[in-house]
């Protein structure tokens, strides 16, 4: 017979585990989370983002990408915003992020405005989610009801950030990285469609233009005319940070042209063109072709995939904190214990 203390301990452990599992539940995120505590948060976010775009035409795409890079590293918890400190090694120094992700000043402006209206209420993680939705919609894309209630992490993970989906990844690697965070092929193709606006640096393009393999100089999946244009903008040995439009047709508009570009072999990155041109791209290619001819289908799918991504391992309940400053943890938070349940099936990472 079990000792009463052992039985009590077992019951306590079960209770704690169930409570934590419940705390992780996506159901804890709600569109009405701030209705009574900060009802105008969405309006504050949208107006600040819109104002930022008047002096920075790239900002809508950059802010959308920032949310991807947050969610794919230990979940949507605002960890990408943390800067170096005695306890934090910033994810911003990871190879996929360094001198690449941007928009932190706009997030800081939003946080200041939100704190003035509703101090200590809205998380930086939720601000990133709201900012992505506002950016997509303001650029001509769909609108959706953002689920809210995330809290901010007190840790960062540069190791995971170094494993973000890469512009150089082939289809198999992309599928693996998306599956690792619980996203499927539809999510992969759909979220890649965010490359319908924004810019990409030459450093991510030149491997396709010069000495591609031992037998060919240029990636054969690149349209030859498009390749010539890219070579003019990204000469061999040139400035690696020079920018190229991700969508050469409507670079600042959120639309379905990205998929038409893939059909025309004008995907800027390897990771783009692989969705259609990889010999094993049966599933992804059919999705690409569907979206190329049906923008409404793409928009509907994008809304669902952004919600799916926004549900990656959020901190809720009493986990994490509400940061006062998005770039640093609150004073004393490093001494607190924050428990996260992570199963083998839990997920973590996305790209520009």
TrEMBL record:
Disulphide linkage map: 38-118, 71-76, 124-326, 202-234
Swiss-Prot/TrEMBL cofactor(s): heme b; Ca(2+)
Top-level class of the enzyme under EC nomenclature: oxidoreductase
Residues reported to bind substrate: 165
Cofactor, how bound (note): Binds 1 heme b (iron(II)-protoporphyrin IX) group per subunit. Binds 2 calcium ions per subunit.
Oxidoreductase recorded as keyword: yes
One Gene Ontology CC term in the entry: extracellular region
Amino-acid positions noted as binding Ca(2+) 1 in the UniProt annotation, renumbered to this chain: 70, 73, 75, 77, 79, 91
Protein name: Peroxidase
Native source organism of the sequence: Ananas comosus
Gene name linked to the record: LOC109704247
């Amino acid at each position: 017979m079990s000792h009463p203390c052992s039985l009590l301990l077992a019951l306590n452990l079960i209770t704690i585990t169930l409570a934590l599992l419940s705390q992780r539940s996506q159901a804890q995120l709600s569109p009405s989370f701030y209705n009574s505590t900060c009802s105008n948060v969405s309006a504050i976010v949208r107006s600040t983002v819109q104002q930022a775009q008047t002096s920075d035409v790239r900002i809508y795409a950059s802010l959308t990408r920032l949310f991807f890079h947050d969610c794919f590293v230990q979940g949507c918890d605002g960890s990408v915003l943390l800067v170096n400190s005695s306890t934090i090694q910033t994810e911003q120094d990871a190879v996929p992020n360094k001198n690449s992700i941007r928009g932190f000043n706009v997030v800081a402006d939003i946080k200041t405005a939100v704190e003035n209206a509703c101090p200590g209420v809205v998380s930086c993680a939720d601000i990133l989610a709201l900012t992505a939705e506002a950016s997509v919609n303001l650029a001509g894309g769909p609108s959706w009801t953002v689920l809210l209630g995330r809290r901010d992490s007190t840790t960062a993970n540069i190791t995971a950030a170094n494993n973000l989906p890469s512009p150089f990844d082939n289809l198999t690697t992309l599928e693996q990285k998306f599956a690792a965070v619980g996203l499927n092929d539809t999510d992969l193709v759909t979220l890649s469609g965010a490359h319908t606006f924004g810019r990409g640096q030459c450093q991510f393009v030149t491997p396709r233009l010069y000495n591609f393999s031992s037998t060919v100089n240029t990636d054969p999946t690149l349209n030859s005319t498009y390749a010539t244009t890219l070579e003019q903008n990204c000469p061999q040995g040139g400035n690696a940070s020079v920018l190229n439009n991700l969508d050469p047709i409507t670079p600042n508009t959120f639309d379905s042209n990205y998929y038409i570009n893939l059909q025309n072999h004008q995907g800027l990155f390897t990771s783009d063109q692989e969705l259609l041109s990889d010999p094993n791209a049966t599933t992804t290619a059919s999705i690409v072709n569907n979206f190329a001819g049906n923008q409404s289908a793409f928009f509907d799918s994008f809304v669902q995939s952004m919600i799916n991504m926004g549900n990656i391992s959020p901190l809720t309940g009493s986990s994490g904190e509400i940061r006062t400053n998005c770039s640093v943890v609150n004073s004393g938070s490093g001494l607190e214990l924050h428990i996260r349940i992570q199963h083998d099936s839990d997920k973590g990472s996305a790209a520009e």
